[in-house]
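Hey, resending since the last one bounced:
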Amino acid sequence: MNKKPKTNPKTHTVTVTGYASGGEGVAHLSDGKVVFIRTATRGDVLDIELTEEKPRSARAKIIRIQTPSQYRIEPDCPYYPKCGGCDFRHIDYDEELKIKLQRINDALERIGGQQIHVSEILRAGKTEGYRNKAVFHSNQQSIGFYSALSHEIVPIDRCLLLKDDLNDAIKTLAPGGKITLRSGKNGLEPPLEEVMDGLLFRISGFFQVNTEAALLLFRRAREYAALTKNETLIDIYSGVGTLAIFVGRDAGHVLGNEQNPAAVKTAMENARINGLSFIDFICADAEKWETSIPNPDCVIVDPPRKGLSPASIWKILELSPKRLVYISCDPATFARDIRLLEGYTIKEICAVDMFPRTANVECCSLLTRNP
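The structure tokens again:
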């Protein structure tokens, strides 16, 4: 009597219908359970194996692509997908941009309770060689990047995302833990500098990793702020002063607030070398500070990924600016904060593809105070 072949309860055939916020493909099992699949593409028909199960969701790996999606392409990097640096090297760029817009719109609707729809995404056009900063990890044998979902090091000789001088430097590095390299217009030599719209910036601490896309972002923030020489601006997370200077050059008085003393020192130097004596910076916690501009016309914020703290939201509401320009690198925390900024309405918003071939996306928005 022939026995029926054993079936593996962890293997399934699924059709990918969309994407999660981290870029994974989303499908559903026959029982309705949602499953997240890295390197899956909308429209793929896949044989998968579950690697992690929870009561309402699961994660899986691809065993075989039965029918590839029309949006699927052949990855152009020998380290992908083992290396965790990229998320979308298997997807064509137009589809990637749609995914990023969807991520922002889903967050605005589901978390922020907003009806506005984002349809514009600014992009510099370069999907390779754009990163001016790299963080390498190493052990005694090799230097590279962490693999996806682990701290296993994937040795690399060249990364498609990095500027040429950063790639050239890889072969000169000696293993030794975490290694950070940054490149400016003057190469890898300190002090690092960048020029944007004729303004010279010295770099220390945080600076956008994609200079060309950052220029598009800054220009849009300047447009949204729409400052005149009769108006005032406060930048609550001013860093080395890039936004306060780039946007605030149109104002009559600008104050930047930053809690890192070294960044404040660099910001003051950046204002001085650009001849902008009406731009000042103070060193204080974003949650506990006093301002010499009690009623600014405009406030600009570019907070870390965790978004605005409750105290920062309270400070914005206390300052009650007519216009608020909010730049975010995380759609979820941005949408959460928008919901908490009572009395303000989104008037303009766009996405910015600061990180091509990854699931990360920035957005720039203008909020105005309700009458």
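The chain has two domains: 11-67, 95-127+189-369.

Sorry for the duplicate.
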